[in-house]
Task: inverse folding
């Protein structure tokens, strides 16, 4: 039996994009992938993210936001950055593994000037885009 590939998804604050990617990877590829997530900084869980994931039956309410600096002792086969900030500021210690970048829009920033119904649509769109990306992973 083949060992599961360990993936770390990293975004800016570990409040949205990386949490979504971790959840989808563990849900869709749990037999072959062990996913974790972190942020360049820890900015807390985004309640909109928790809500839109619950809409599709994925409970991340118990997750916590973690800075990438807490991952130093862990080893990963792949590190996937999901924001330009994460790609630019990723600590070198994690850069020694296979590193990939797949940038996704930050829904909290894109929805600052829109009405509440449009705001949740932005989160749903990013959630679905990340799912498509995670579904396509073949490691």
Result:
């Amino acid at each position: 039996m083949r060992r599961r590939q360990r993936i770390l998804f990293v975004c800016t604050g570990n409040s949205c994009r990386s949490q979504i990617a971790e959840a989808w990877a563990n849900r869709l590829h749990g037999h072959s992938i062990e996913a974790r997530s972190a942020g360049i900084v820890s900015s807390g869980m985004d309640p909109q993210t928790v809500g839109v994931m619950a809409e599709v039956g994925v409970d991340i309410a118990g997750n916590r936001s973690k800075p990438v600096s807490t991952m130093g002792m862990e080893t990963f086969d792949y590190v996937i950055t999901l924001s330009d900030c994460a790609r630019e500021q990723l600590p070198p210690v994690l850069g020694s593994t296979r590193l990939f970048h797949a940038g996704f829009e930050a829904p909290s920033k894109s929805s600052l000037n829109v009405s509440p119904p449009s705001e949740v649509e932005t989160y749903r769109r990013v959630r679905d885009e990340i799912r498509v990306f995670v579904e396509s992973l073949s490691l």
